[in-house]
Amino acid sequence: MIATTEKIEYGKEVIEFELLQEDRKTLSIEVLPSTRIKVKAPENKNRQDIIKKVQNKAKWITKQKRYFVDNYKKPDEKKYVSGECFRYLGKQYRLKVIKSDIDSIKLKNGYLIVEYNLKTPAKLINKWYKDKAISIFEKELDKCFKQFIAYKIDKPSLKIRKLTKRWGSYNKNSNTITMNIETIKANKNCIDYVIYHELCHCMYFSHNKQFYTLLESKCKDWSKLKNKLEMLIL
Ligand SMILES: [Zn+2]
Q: pLDDT tens for residues 170-227?
């Protein structure tokens, strides 16, 4: 499989799409609810021909995108009350909030149990997510980075933030990977995919062919994991 990121122009809009060329006979264009555009094409098909076909569908693509922007519902804001569902490492937990004389939080038998006293349940839960994200992302980065040691690059440092439109990013000047704290809600394979993606940016700035070849060699299921993340977050 070959993967690249391509662009077409439609009116004033630049439409970016992911092109996957693989063992198949027909061309397919898909607009996902996140408004990501995925084009699948036969391996031997000429790149310019593919771009032309996508260009011909630009009106339809724009319409689909607009539909999803207007109708795609964001998950409800949390109220931090018993019964609500909270995701952590790919599993769902039901929240149980108990007024207590201590502040504590734990996972037990499918429940996220929050005992609160001085701090609000919201504060406790958000701090818990952050602490878990820091320790788990660090551990996964150590694990994933082992596959990059041969390239003689320095291990990037890690930052955790609430990002609105991406799961992670890489800054070459500071050699830092910034991870979206929300990614802690996905399973470890998805977290690893985000880390591998950002580590590949240590080698290649843009999403070019070499980038995807490297990513595929480190994380074979990256495309599936990316879809999974998209269903879950953003
Ligand atoms: Zn990237």
A: 999 999 999 999 999 999 999 999 999 999 999 999 999 999 999 999 999 999 999 8
Residue 71 clears pLDDT 80, i.e. is over it: no
Distance 102 CA to ligand 1 centre (A): 43
Q: Could you give the strand order of the β-sheet that contains 91-99, starting from the edge strand earlier in sequence?
A: 85-88, 91-99, 111-116, 104-108
Show the domains of the chain with their CATH numbers: 2-71 (no CATH), 85-232 (3.30.2010.10)
For residue 117, report the distance from its CA to the centre of ligand 1, in Å: 42
pLDDT at 76: 61
Ligand 1 centre to CA of 23 (Å) is: 25
Q: For residue 142, give the 3-state DSSP assignment.
A: helix
